[in-house]
């Protein structure tokens, strides 16, 4: 049940990033809600499996940058989720540049923290 709630929180955060960040687009031929749902599923799965490994591997750099490098890890995970979702389901989620992905990862982190705190998904 917690994973489903976490996926819903991530879907809300991804929808906010698609709406707010100019370089994050959904192809007009696909349904936006389906694209957001598939990407949120992949992003949640990668947050559980790949992100902790990347955080441990990047620990020395993160200590030197006082934790700011974790934003780069989040951006990389967003790129991987987009690549997987587009490769497996051809959903049409497009990231135009690294800057757009970086801002989108910040928006996704903030929105998921707020919504997760309200719903209790991060407990």
TrEMBL record:
Sorted UniProt keywords: Membrane, Transmembrane, Transmembrane helix
Keyword Membrane: yes
Protein name from the UniProt record: Phage holin family protein
Membrane-spanning ranges: 33-50, 57-81, 101-121
One Pfam family named in its UniProt record: Phage_holin_4_2
